[in-house]
Structure formats: structure tokens, C-alpha cells
Amino acid sequence: MRCCFSAPLAAMSALPSPCEVLRSGALLAPTLLRAAAGAFHGSGRKSHGHHPDSLAAVHLELVTLTEDRAIITWYTGVPGTNDGLGHMLPAVTEGEVVYGTHPSRLDRTASEDRPTAHHHVELTDLEPGQTYYYQARSRGKAATPTPLHLIRGNAVGTNRYGLGSSRGPYSFTTPQPPPGRHLLSIALCNDFHIGETTAGLMAGLPLLRGVAQEPGLAPYPEIMSRALVEEAQRRGADLLLAAGDISAGGAPRDLAEAKRILDGFGSHGQDYFVVRGNHDRPRHREAGDAFREGFLGGAGPAYFARDLGGLRIIGLDTYEKDGNGADAGGLGDEQLSWFRARLKERGDQPTVVFGHHPLTVRDSLFPVSGGQRLGRRQARSILDAYASAPGVFLHHAGHTHRNKRTVLPQAPHVTLQEVSAAKDYPGGFCLLRIHSGGYALNHYKTSGAPAREWGERSRRVAGGLWPHHALGRAVADRNSMTAHDLSGVSPRGLSATAGSLLGPGTATS
């Protein structure tokens, strides 16, 4: 199954512009050529001479940053080894993070409870608005950051402190908490791709190998999706919104498996909500619509509005049309008219909108094609509607498989949040924490051992360039806090269970 990030060459209308191709090509060519050359070599595991006690600590990332905690991950491998994909074999060892409020006094320590090669350390009891300095290390080796040099990004902190050295320490400043009391939390996720067997097969680049799961292990989309549900529950999510591409190709068995996994969170239409992505479309009309049958009981539209104790959730079907799945997203005329009416009738009501295709795609390392977003005309129409609906504060989308926060001048009160794919690196979900005076968005990697292992293996998608695209250029692309009046929302959406899915022509109550 090809990645929805790249449009098939036959879909000429979705191709990026020549300028986009030249810009990205100049950046990507050296790495892509190395990856293409590597495709001609054997894929079996290779090992070169190395000392049995040697170790390298790499891929350091500050994943999650809230007002009182930070989650830091890294990988330890054996130098001089190669798993066949240009990656070191794992070195299982201890991991710890030393940190403090001054770079020369790292007087606090957070450690893991068992040795591993896929390190995941959580710092707790931090103070809001405080700058911290830290160093992650294993067996005395300081971990080095995931390089984001092609995009001038920063994987390890909120400033560039320490990036000029190979050992750090690096630094971050904790944000202030959202104003007011906590009301409820919502897990935002997308791109499960249940049924997919190889990550990162890109159309038009046949020499770039995709990344498959290790033989004998469970399918990676199922590992990552189950881990996501468990992590979302552990992090206190009251609701879950899944923004499309639940399956890899719309097969009934894959959508049924996806529903079984999501049912581990609760009941569809009450505890979690799902909208369709381009991969979930029916391939043949005569074969029926498995997404509609599985999640909607075979009837009604694939878009809806729901009132959850004063918070309105609007789910959009952004591929409500015929097509090959690689072209731009589109809402049917009836859905678009219905959506505008919903925004107009209660423009002040706190509202979260979610759908598979983003309204805009900016600052991408890879060439941007029309297939990566909603059609331009409809996107402009929706932004115009948002400008007159001050209650809308968040539009959540997937499809691009990256973490990216965008705020546009047409509707500056709305955060456009793209969330990385659940199925592979960096994996996980974004937790939306709603307070009476604002909200926070925080990305969490799934932390189970099998999920960590696949997350590390799948970072080699696109010749190893995937972190430049998927992680987020800055910590703020996956962690942010915004002030917004949400005092009309009930704590934990307690009236949600009394509501009903509302389709065309029906007002929320």
C-alpha cells in the first residue's frame, strides 16, 4: 500500500509545481541518492568489528512538554553494526536524564525502571514558566539529538541552547498552564492504516525501499493502534477523535479490526468518533461501503455534529467524492452547505472540527501536491466561515503524517493542527486538554515496548529523512497552549451520553 503522502504519477492534477520539486530536490537529493544506492545491496543483517561494550546514544527528542512535565526519548545502538536498513543494532542498557535550572547544576535525576534500547523518560513536578537544562545518557554516553538540519529544526528544546556541542546540555522552558480549571481531555489521532504491510512506499520513487515489520511480529498498524488506545486512556482522555485513514484500503476486514481496536476505548458515537479518510473510500461501488457499514450502521451521512456538554464536535467527510484517493480532498455540496449552516447558527459555541485533509499545507520538506489538502476553493470557503464563527478554536486534520501547528490571518482564533500518523514514527496522538480559559495540545508517543521498537524502525522511511517531516520542526508544532474562552463547556462533557449524532439539516441542542 502506497503512502497517501505521495500522489500517483497518473494523477496529474495533484502533482506539485515544478518550483516545489526543484526546491525539495535540492535539499533531498544527496540523501535520496544514498538511499537508492543502498537499495541495491543485500538487506540481511550485517555486522562489522566492534567492541562488545561500545555504545552510541542517538535520536534524542523532547517529545512532550507541558507546564509540569516533559517526556524525552532516545535510542542506544551498537556502533559498527547494520540491521540491513542502515541502522545500528540495539544495545540494551540503562537510561537516565539529569536536569536542573542551571546548566552547571544538573542536580535532579529521572531514570527508567528497566534496561532497554528504546529509552523513554518522563520528568515530572516541573514548574510552569521555568527554564530547565538537561542531558540524557546511557552508560555514561550523552545522547545526541535527532538532526533536523535540512529544515533548521530543533528536536530537543525550545531554544538552541546546547545545539553547538555533541553532548549538550540542552534546554527547554515549560509553558504556563491553560487558564482556568480543567474540563475535559480529548485524544486526537489519525492514519491507523490497518491492513498496511510496508510503511513509506512512495510513488514515483521506486528505489526508495519501504520499511516492513520484523518477521514473526504482529502487524505494525495493529501494534501502534492498540498502544495508542491504551496510552490515551492512561493519559486521561475522556474522548477520542480519529480523523480518517482508519484502514489502508477500505477492506471490510481491516475496518472491522480497526473498530475492534477502537472499541477498547469505549463506544462509538459516545466515547469515540471516527470520520472517513481517502484510504477508507469504497474501491468499487457495487461492493458496498465498508466504512459506512462498520461505523454508521449502513445509513446516514459520514459527517455529523455533536453537542458534548456545551462543546460542539463537528466531524467532516473530506473525501465525499469519487476519485483514486490521491487527489485533493473534497466536501460534497450538501455537506459544505450543512457545515456553513452549523457554523452560522451558533457561531459563538466552543467548537472543535476534525476531518482527514488539512485546509493548508505549509513548510513541507517534501514537494507539496494538491492531494495533500482540501481543495483550495473549499478551504478558502471554510476559513471565511471560521472568520465569522469565533467559537471555533481548533481544526484537527491528519493525512500529511506530520505534526504541524498553523494559524492563519483569515481566522487567527483557530489553531489548525496536523497530527502525525498513528501507524509509524513518531507514532501516538495529540492530547487536547480543555480548560475554562484556554486549551493545551500535547503530543504523546505510544510508550509500550513493541510500539517503541516499531517507532524506531520506521523512522527510516524516506531514506531516513522521515523525522525531518513527521516529528515537527519545533517543540511548538506538537506542544502548545492557547488562551480562549471555553467557560461554556461542562466538566468532562457529562451530557455527552445524552446526545445524538446530528446530520444534515439538524441543529445541535
Features of this protein?
single chain; 509 residues; alpha+beta; Purple Acid Phosphatase, chain A, domain 2; six-stranded mixed β-sheet; disordered C terminus
What's the topology here?
Layout: H1 18-38, E1 46-47, E2 56-65, E3 70-77, E4 81-82, E5 96-100, E6 108-111, E7 118-123, E8 131-138, E9 141-142, E10 170-173, E11 182-189, E12 198-199, E13 211-212, H2 220-234, E14 239-243, H3 252-262, E15 272-275, H4 290-296, E16 304-308, E17 311-315, H5 333-345, E18 351-354, H6 376-387, E19 392-397, E20 404-406, E21 415-418, E22 429-435, E23 438-444, H7 449-457, H8 466-470, E24 479-483
Write a brief structural summary.
With 509 residues, the protein is of the alpha+beta class. 18% of the residues lie in helices and 23% in strands.
How many separate structural domains?
2
What is the CATH domain class of the largest domain?
Answer: Alpha Beta
Please state the average pLDDT score. Answer: 87
Low-pLDDT residue spans: 5-13, 38-45, 496-501, 505-509
Rg, Å, rounded: 22 Å
DSSP helix count?
8
**CATH homologous superfamily placement of the largest domain:** Metallo-dependent phosphatases
Structure in words:
The chain is α+β, with helices and mostly antiparallel strands. Helices cover 18% and strands 23% of the residues. The chain is built from 8 helices and 24 strands. Strand 17, helix 5 (333-345) and strand 18 (351-354) form a beta-alpha-beta unit. The longest helix has 21 residues, at 18-38. The chain is globular.
